[in-house]
Specification:
Elements lengths: L2 H14 L5 E6 L3 H6 L6 H5 L7 E7 L2 E6 L3 E6 L5 E5 L9 E7 L4 E5 L6 E6 L7 H4 L12 H11 L3 H6 L9 H11 L12 H20 L42 E5 L2 E5 L6
Antiparallel strand pairs: 1-6, 2-3, 3-4, 4-8, 5-7, 6-7, 9-10
Helix pairs in contact: 1-8, 5-8, 7-8
Length: 280
Amino acid sequence: MELPEVEVMRRDLERDVVGKKIKDAEVKSSRNAMRTIRRHKTRKEFTSRLAGRKITKIERRGKYLLLYLDGGDVMVVHFGMSGQFQRANGRVALPAHTQVVITFQQGGDLRFVDPRTFGELFVAGTDELGKIKELQHIAIDPLDQVFTWPTFQYLLAERGAKMKQLLMDQKFISGLGNIYSDEVLFAAGLRFDRLSDTLSSQEVRRLYRAIQETLQDAIKARGTTLDDEAYVDLFGKPGEYQAELKVYGRAGLPCRRCRTPIETVRISQRTSYFCPQCQS
């Protein structure tokens, strides 16, 4: 999941589970389920901090979700590559790879499903959040009001790195992964290997606008679901932004802007997509 999918999940959860009281939490008996709660020594250490608690608000920090509980604790969620929440009830069979089930007093449950178990859930006190290193190192959020184009121009000039790697660096900007970094660079007309300190102010403005517009459009379309269907929303529905993708996954197909075939390149073991004509 990248930022748009995590933000869609945050909004869904905010509408659906804020104000609900947790009746019970269960960590499945497999070793994989223990991997999901790996920061806790035992299942009970995790579940006892959830039972009887009410979810009061939900925040997103980069690709992390924070579910605040009354009583001063927070459940921190990272989806990894294949994790997702699903809302259901006891009448609906648990999907394969369900690692954790949270049941609500008002009825229904919330399932954390994660085939590859790179995702994780853990509970921490609100006073401990500042000490969690993954949350300390989250970079500027492109949907945050403090993300202004002069700040962005300064950060780009300071780094002098290749654009694709830089946009995917979670310590530089938060929430862009392989899909949206390709889409943003295409929208801005910039090649994957352009050095960030060579951009003119016009190019920086274009890039800044491309980041904002691409992410907002993807959120509006409820995220991107590729053929592997790794991402669906809280209610099991796929996103629709895949129909809007301009370059990602379109190797050999004509560019939607200039008809030149889309090309690929390997960057950090991932395939990246670009138009050799429209991006310079």
